[in-house]
Amino acid sequence: MNGYQRIEKAIALEAVDRTPIWFMRQAGRYLPEYRELKSRYDFRTMVQTPDLATEVTLQPIKRFHQIDAAILFSDILVIPEALGMDYDFREGGGIEMDWSLNTESDFNKLSVDAVEEKLDYVFRAIAQIRGELGTEKALLGFGGSPWTLATYMVEGGSSKDFSKVKSLGFERPDLLAKLLFLLSEALIRYFRRMQESGVQAIQIFDSWGSACPGVYYEDWSLKWIRRIIDEVGQRVPFILFSKGMGAYRDEWISTGAKVISLDSSLRLSDFTQLPNRKFAVQGNLDPALLSLDPEVVRKATRELLQAVGPTRGHIFNLGHGIMPTARLESVEAMLETVEDCGA
Ligand code: CP3
Exposed (0-12), middle (13-18) or buried (19+): which is 211, by Cβ within 10 Å? Predict the structure, then answer.
């Protein structure tokens, strides 16, 4: 069984020869070959140049044969950029947007027109990567949830308290809804084209789901995710990751996502052991482990797999992005342990 089939079967809750594996490395500068390329090109150039995006996408696959799916090298912030708001990185970490949404007229500066043309570099990269992967490995696309993207656009970048975007939601729900609608439109078009270009599944990162007050989680975040999955979910399976919102398990399931991705705060078995489960479960080793000794990582990985038990529909993944301090020998230890444990 190859990686492509393993991922496909796990999503369909069919039997596999071992638990399939992939993980993202966002904010992860742990690979020397990535750092080398990064010393020659800036991030956005790498994202926007299909040859470079292809090279970076394939790096983890080439180094670690156990990984079953490549994840497209890109960023969730390509969507705000295509709507008219550029992004950059702050010295010392975090995101800085070029401008932010403050007044009502700011909202009129954003446009969903020609969003597919502006993001054409992504679709070209996907086609190129798909060609190189052949039918051996899966390729995953992704995007931010409308809410998570809105936080960057209203806050003007990474935020500690999300006060601006919350104020907008409380004081001007009409304007927040207008923004979320626009983002959903852009994402629906984007994801359709991603699927046509060759991705096997799409992960929605609702990384700042937990910034929503619980009573507004449906209105500010899930409603829009639901809409996207309604529109595109017949063509391609969606993986939903909504960090910190595990209390809303049933609402997650009701979005129609085929895979629920768990952050490390949750217990995998609370999801894998649900009776009549119709979705696959992804997760959720704590990424902090990968900065520790390989022996510690082996033990934690074995414990995780034992807790899941011999179940169908589990994809091994980290609970969040890999950290820049991850040690290569510890990543190897994790992958070997999953490989040795079977399914
Ligand atoms: O695994 C992969 O390489 C796939 C590509 C990927 C990136 N970003 C590339 C990247 C993915 C899946 C993302 C998702 C992403 N980007 C999310 C959602 C996931 C999550 O963390 O919950 C978010 C919130 C972003 C926005 C973003 N981009 C942040 C917060 C950062 C870190 C900024 C910092 O320095 O603190 C980035 C940068 C980024 N995106 C890097 C990579 C490989 C690191 C860039 C570098 O320094 O080389």
Answer: buried
Query: Closest residue (by CA) to atom 24 of ligand 1?
Result: 207
Tell the residue nearest (CA) to atom 10 of ligand 1: 26
- Nearest atom, ligand 1, residue 142 CA: 12
The answer, yes or no, to whether residue 327 has pLDDT greater than 90, is: yes
Taking the whole predicted model, whether its pTM rises above 0.90 is answered as yes
Ligand 1: nearest atom to the Cα of 148: 24
What pLDDT is stored for residue 172 in this prediction? 97
Residue 1's nearest CA partner among 339, 253, 263, 240 is 339
Percent of the chain with pLDDT over 70: 99
CB of 77 closer than 6 A to ligand 1? yes
Residues 225-237, mean pLDDT to the nearest whole number: 98
Which one-letter amino acid corresponds to residue 144? G
Instruction: Look at residue 311 in the predicted model and tell me its pLDDT.
Output: 86
Say yes or no: CB of residue 122 within 6 Å of ligand 1.
no
User: Which of 61, 74, 75 is the best mutation target for the ligand 1 pocket, counting ligand atoms within 8 Å of the beta carbon and taking the most?
Assistant: 75
Per-residue pLDDT tens over the stretch 87-112: 999 988 899 999 999 999 999 999 99
Which residue's CA lies nearest to atom 9 of ligand 1? 26
